[in-house]
Amino acid sequence: MLLLAALLAGCKREGPEVEPPRPGPIPEAVVEEPEPVKPAGPPELPPLFRDIEKRTFQFFWDTTNEVNGLTPDRYPSRPFSSIASVGFALTAYPIGIENGWVSRTQAVDRTLTTLRFFRDAKQGPQETGTIGHKGFYYHFIDMQNGHRYEPWVELSSVDTGLLMMGVLFAQQYYDRDEPREQEIRDIADELYRNVEWTWLQVRPPLISMGWYPETGFIEHDWTGYDEAMLVYILALGSPTHPVGPEAWQAWTSTYDTEVWGTFMGQEYLSFAPHFGHQYTHTWVDFRGIRDEYMRGRGIDYFENSRRATYAQRQYAIENPMGWREYGENVWGLTASDGAQRTDQEYQGQVREFRHYSARGAGLAVAFDDGTIAPTAAVASIAFAPEIVIPATEELHRRFGEHLYSSYGFLDSFNASFQYDVPLKTGRIVPGLGWVASDYIGIDQGPILAMIANYRNGFVWNLMRKSPYIQEGLKRAGFTGGWLDELAGQEGAIGDDAAEAVEVPAAQGGTAATPVRTAPAQ
């Protein structure tokens, strides 16, 4: 037995010891001596992650309608397209190019098809027959004609924002002096400039969640801390319909009363479903840059998401509701599919279970019915690789036979749900519990993009170059880190007007050309 124990110990993969985040401020990054963006000696990704990337990319490439570029909200159900899924798809295609999974020509074709469709599709205030209004787009649209899918579908500010992030990413990536890539850049610019952000400021300076042609503006504005960070950054950066800086101030003014506090040993801005800590970070590199609020707290939004990730894991370890399988390497609550809306007895208590719903653990609006979504952990790889890598491996090792398939991880599973009731979706696997049957685009997208960001900052580095993202951040009051570095570079160019702005061709093209490296193999 002693020999067996020694052999097993020898097989255990060693990793660097990384101290978990502590409450309180951290030193602010400065251009002269930037703080490390990740703990020293970050873990290398095991081969599993390359397989996850390839399969997740294929979700977007295979399921998107080749005729119009619309990506389904989910698959294989595929009932309608989600404009947010399209934004993630536009981000996925360059990752496919860099990895050799598709050619640049193929990706340019697909991207042009998508952008032309959104440019040419009819907009207007009608209840049917349009794709959007005032530059905004409906949350869900028909996979074939792009029209608003059903009367319950809203014109969505945040989903338009997710689409626009993908549009601006395409504008940055396709940088060659070639007619079709120039057209991508031009159409991307047109789509972004067309969004009338101020139209949704019905209770200024905040921005409404959206609009229905039948009933008008949605009564709720984006407040607190959540995925709508990207809405305000995009609205602030608009060259045609910008909102004022007071919009960001109003947005952050709701933090203290709603979401700042200590949860599971972490002091941070809490948002219970983990997608709120991931979506904006998919495209915006918050490492070392801070707005006024975060300067006062002594951290940045990247550190905030890191703490939120640790809090999610600690919640699963403590498992206050006693769900099956929760633990150190099985965790992750976010918006995801579930088995069914039903009340069932579990461990002597009547518990509520849901179908698709926001799930999460945090200071407020938390809901947990035992459903784990792999995207909550895997898409946090850039924040806390030392806990995400083992979690991803364990999810794959223990549940992969039923949870991991053609396009990577299926959306979710619930080991505690083993009831003999009609299911909304998914299936019951004997001995495991409920397992989803669909992949969902807005859960797939962050997995692919954030692994790319972890490898070499691929999406972040390109979006740093976007003048609209830069402007949005600056008008929101962000300073420090790479923003100050870019400002210094611009100043150096401006100080010597006699110097040519273009970089010699041998050094990579013009000054506006993004510096890009292929993901590590």
Automatic annotation (TrEMBL):
Coiled-coil intervals, chain numbering: none
Domain of life of the native organism: Bacteria
Start and end residues of each Glycoamylase-like domain: 220-467
Lineage: Bacteria, Pseudomonadati, Pseudomonadota, Gammaproteobacteria, Lysobacterales
Protein name per the record: Glycoamylase-like domain-containing protein
InterPro entries associated with the record: Glycoamylase-like_cons_dom, UCP028431
Chain residue ranges for the region called Disordered: 14-44
